[in-house]
Backbone:
């Protein structure tokens, strides 16, 4: 029993050969983290960094990394977001076999597309919509592309939708979506991609298209094809590990940009953007 | 994330200073365009072939006026535009850190 309990409390999170583990003895928080990272433990590998979450009083919890305290308090949303942020830093720090991008990633029939951009550009919203519409899901936030630009993977965590983006769930899942998703006090929601479409999680794809989305409400959809040089500059800007790669990741960004079609995409709403992306991928 | 260098004073045709390639930058031709990047930093600049040519002429010996004169000899049909283009390109490359001044 003790072994079963120990095993049950550890959650493994892997990305492109790097791994961290999260030990959580609190059943409620364990359920939350297990849902957030349900699809992130493949392929299994030895974690280099261990996080732990322990209950320290009736309301308070402590988050530690390798025994060093990062947070202690009763704000579980903050603790959750801090854990996600810290473990991503650890995973990306150990990722030297590929170009890590601040990017959503999806695929259809093995052909991958990347949605690159900073926060609030619509990566998660578009990732959720496209997953529900039939694309395979690799990640909504953290993708890694091989240095030769020929394959990509991602962190297939639960899709994190901000308050203004939960319409995606209402559109595809109806009003009952909250029963099967994690709600945060900020009114953002984390949803398992396989609730949007069963068996939608995908481990690897071949990059075929790059999009740099920007949410522009009230404006007509606008797009421009990017040259490989322009795409390279933009890729380096959204890379999260370029500084750790040979020649600052620029040859890797260039290899990716040369092998794909790249577009800017200013879009008024997710449905319009998704339809346009589908037309580009199909073409 | 990419590192961008803050803007420096604008380049002027009669500037007596001489532009020189910043140490460590590399030029890569990508289809019909050019990127300049520093392998030790995540600094990358996109320009066209003409911009790449201007950067290649920045040897710390030629003045801006001399670079313009040289390009006007090579491209006499575009002579009326070259001075403005060179000033703009040098301004962009200076802002991006790929050109320094002596």
Residues:
């Amino acid at each position: 029993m003790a072994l079963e309990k120990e095993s049950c409390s550890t959650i493994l999170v892997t990305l492109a050969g790097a791994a961290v583990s999260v030990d959580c003895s609190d059943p409620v928080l364990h359920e939350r983290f297990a849902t957030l990272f349900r699809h992130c433990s493949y392929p299994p590998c030895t974690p280099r960094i261990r996080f732990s979450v322990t209950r320290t009083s009736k309301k308070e919890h402590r988050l530690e990394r390798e025994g060093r305290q990062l947070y202690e308090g009763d704000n579980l949303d903050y603790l959750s977001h801090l854990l996600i942020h810290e473990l991503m830093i650890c995973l990306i720090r150990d990722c030297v076999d590929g170009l890590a991008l601040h990017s959503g990633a999806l695929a259809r029939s093995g052909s991958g597309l990347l949605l690159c951009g900073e926060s609030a550009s619509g990566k998660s919203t578009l990732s959720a919509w496209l997953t529900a519409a039939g694309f395979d899901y690799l990640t909504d936030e953290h993708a890694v592309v091989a240095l030769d630009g020929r394959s990509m993977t991602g962190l297939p965590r639960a899709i994190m939708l901000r308050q203004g983006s939960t319409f995606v769930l209402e559109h595809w899942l109806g009003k009952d979506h909250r029963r099967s998703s994690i709600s945060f006090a900020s009114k953002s929601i984390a949803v398992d991609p396989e609730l949007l479409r069963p068996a939608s999680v995908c481990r690897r794809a071949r990059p075929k298209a790059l999009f740099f989305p920007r949410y522009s409400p009230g404006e007509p959809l606008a797009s421009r094809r990017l040259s490989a040089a322009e795409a390279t500059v933009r890729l380096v800007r959204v890379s999260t590990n370029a500084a750790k790669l040979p020649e600052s990741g620029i040859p890797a960004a260039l290899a990716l940009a040369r092998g794909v079609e790249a577009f800017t995409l200013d879009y008024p709403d997710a449905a319009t953007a998704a339809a346009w992306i589908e037309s580009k991928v199909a073409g | 994330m990419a590192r961008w260098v803050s803007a420096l004073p604008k380049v002027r045709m009669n500037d007596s200073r001489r532009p020189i390639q910043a140490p460590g930058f590399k030029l890569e031709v990508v289809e019909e365009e050019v990127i300049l990047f520093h392998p030790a930093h995540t600094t990358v600049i996109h320009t066209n072939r003409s911009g790449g040519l201007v950067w290649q002429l920045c040897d710390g010996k030629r003045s801006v006026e001399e670079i313009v004169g040289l390009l006007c000899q090579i491209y006499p049909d575009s002579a009326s535009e070259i001075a403005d283009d060179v000033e703009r390109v040098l301004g962009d490359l200076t802002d991006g850190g790929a050109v320094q001044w002596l």
About this structure: The helical segments of chain B are 49-57, 64-74, 79-96.
